[in-house]
Amino acid sequence: MRKRARVIYNPTSGRETLKSKLVDILDVLERGGYETSAYATTPQENSARDEATRVAREGFDLVVAAGGDGTINQVINGIAPLDHRPKLGIIPAGTTNDFARALGIPRDDLVEAARVMTKGQLLPMDVGKASNDEMTQYFINIAAGGRLTELTYDVPSDLKTVFGYIAYLVKAVEMLPQARPIDMKVTYDGGHYEGKASMFFLAMTNSVGGFEQAVPNASLNDGNFTMIIVKTGNMMEILQLLTKALNGGRHVNDSRIIYKKTRNFTVAQTDTKRPMPINLDGEYGGSAPMQFENLKEHLSIFSNLPKQQPQQLLE
């Protein structure tokens, strides 16, 4: 019986270039031995998530998330809670494509990205689980909270489409003067912190907003988040930390940073004047308080990493 693949694609991603390449993408997967079909996401809430769940339950062998980080996150949420989890493929067509960057998947050639799935190189990949009293969600790249982390979902989708990554940079410049610290309480493996912080990150790859030095020792499948807490809210100090990050990741040794590996993490806001939104893979994921757990090697994802990097070839 032929293997079945479903391409779940966002027709508005990547300045709408994905649609013109779809026939070629389907052809690559067909030649790779998959009976392939496609589904275009709709404006309906959780369209990609619900389709991923449906085809996974029908026994599809491969689900392909074609779009930006938000589309990938929805597909992850569609299959991560299930007992039977199909293989996952990525075709990056978004603005920053952090996850594809971390996996070495071509970001400037969508058809070449599809060919990655015909080479049989699978990586057992960690998945993050975020939960509170209201919801449980999953993420594959980053969870974050704090004033500056709100910028990714404050950028309108039409601006992302037209202006790409420059839209994020403009929003960051606009929001930097507002980066006042928040009173928060966090716990992590072997420690805790209670006090003011302008943001926290739980990274699962080394690429955050297109910057690969933000979390220099992040691992894709060691079962741990790489945690960063930025304790300062001073604009000049944040710029200093950013300069250190861009200059070889030297920010991780700064006293204004807490930098640790942890499997579990909880965050609560002690200042209740304004809710603390949580950012999951660049999208709004609810508000604190929230608990996070790293699910080690929870999904098998096609990658294009060099041989010397940690990975595992699966049947």
From TrEMBL:
InterPro entries: ATP-NAD_kinase_N (IPR017438), Diacylglycerol/lipid_kinase (IPR005218), Diacylglycerol_kinase_cat_dom (IPR001206), Lipid_Phosphate_FormReg (IPR050187), NAD/diacylglycerol_kinase_sf (IPR016064), YegS/DAGK_C (IPR045540). SMART domains: DAGKc (SM00046). Its cofactor is Mg(2+). Gene3D superfamilies: 2.60.200.40, Probable inorganic polyphosphate/atp-NAD kinase, domain 1. Pfam families: DAGK_cat (PF00781), YegS_C (PF19279). Its EC number is 2.7.1.107. It is an enzyme of class 2 (transferase). GO terms for biological process: phospholipid biosynthetic process. Residues 1-134 form the DAGKc domain. One of its GO terms (cellular component) is plasma membrane. Keywords: ATP-binding, Kinase, Lipid biosynthesis, Lipid metabolism, Magnesium, Metal-binding, Nucleotide-binding, Phospholipid biosynthesis, Phospholipid metabolism, Transferase. GO terms for molecular function: ATP binding; ATP-dependent diacylglycerol kinase activity; metal ion binding. PROSITE patterns: DAGK (PS50146). NCBIfam families: PRK13055.1, PRK13337.1, YegS/Rv2252/BmrU family lipid kinase. Belongs to the diacylglycerol/lipid kinase family. This is Diacylglycerol kinase.
